[in-house]
Amino acid sequence: MNQKHKERMLTGDRVTGKLHLGHYVGSLQNRVMLQGKYDSYILLADVQALTTHFDRPDSIREHLREVALDYLAVGIDPNQATLFLQSMVPEIAELTVFFSMFVTVNSLRHNPTIKSESKGSSLDELYYGFLGYPVSQAADITFCKASIVPVGDDQLPHLELARKVVRRFNELYRPVFPEPQALISETPRLVGTDGNAKMSKSLGNAIELDITPEQLSYKIRRAVTDPARIRKHDPGHPEVCPIYAYHKVFEPSGAPEIHEACERGSIGCTECKHRLVASLNTLLEPMRERRSRYAGNPRVIDEILMEGTRRAREIARETLSEVREAMGLDYF
Ligand code: ATP
Ligand code: MG
């Protein structure tokens, strides 16, 4: 089917560091699977990265091509998906301003993801841009009229806000936007190697997609396991062990056996970790191959991003002219 007649899918990642297995199972895998079914847009969220990194713009610049390379390595096809830079589509910023007129501060301060990311700071201490990033995210989704958004479950409150914004805009002015739906994967939140509920770039508990086999063995060796298990034959509690959580996600067919052997104390943590490393290498190997094909050719990556940004901007201009018309701001 022609791209024009397909529904749109949009999602993206903050350009704050390399992508990791949490991104892969939470969102990237669905993007790859659905890139042929939907007209797909993938945003490199450099503006949203500034909400926490405004004093380190160099680090955003540094990570930009790495994130793009991660996309290509997992199998995102630039001929099917449009990869683009958020800051280079200024219409998104314009739409954010319009939306921000009818979003209350109260709805943002009670957003559970904002609360957990602001780590106990009071409202008075929060930056305006940080508090408002869910509004900007609503603009990211709507500028291309996306109807589906593959994300991890920390994004659900933001999707709820985006849906409210769309409903409000459509009733205040004219129906311009479809209501976006979150697409939550089978693993909406992958645990970190330190046992934290979320593997995250900013928590230092991530297994990056570009990890070498040696680094992988090292990271898994150091990852926490069931703290109650001291000796090899102590009966384990797989449900509290991140290594078991990874087995369930990355080698589900072998997981019941691991579960049983761990509980019985017949498999030690070292052996269990070895098996995990082998399964992860099987997953990562094709990514390493694709990555090495692009890595030697940074010019190709720049061209993909430039072409994607050009396409995104074209759509953004069309949508914004509809928005201005709907709001009666098309004066001349
Ligand atoms: P940061 O710590 O800088 O916010 P992050 O690791 O949270 O980085 P984001 O760029 O904020 O990554 O998230 C991009 C997408 O990946 C979102 O859809 C998010 O829900 C998903 N995601 C991130 N980490 C995980 C995880 N551990 N499990 C499942 N999905 C995840
Ligand atoms: Mg995040």
TrEMBL record:
GO molecular function list:
ATP binding; tryptophan-tRNA ligase activity
Keywords (alphabetical) are:
Aminoacyl-tRNA synthetase, ATP-binding, Ligase, Nucleotide-binding, Protein biosynthesis
Example GO BP:
tryptophanyl-tRNA aminoacylation
Write down a Pfam family by its short name.
tRNA-synt_1b
Catalysed reaction equations from the record: tRNA(Trp) + L-tryptophan + ATP = L-tryptophyl-tRNA(Trp) + AMP + diphosphate + H(+)
Q: What is its EC number?
A: 6.1.1.2
* Gene Ontology cellular component list: cytosol
Give the similarity note: Belongs to the class-I aminoacyl-tRNA synthetase family.
Give the protein name, as stated in the record: Tryptophan--tRNA ligase
What is the organism of origin for this protein?
Answer: Fontibacillus phaseoli
Q: What is the lineage of its organism?
A: Bacteria, Bacillati, Bacillota, Bacilli, Bacillales
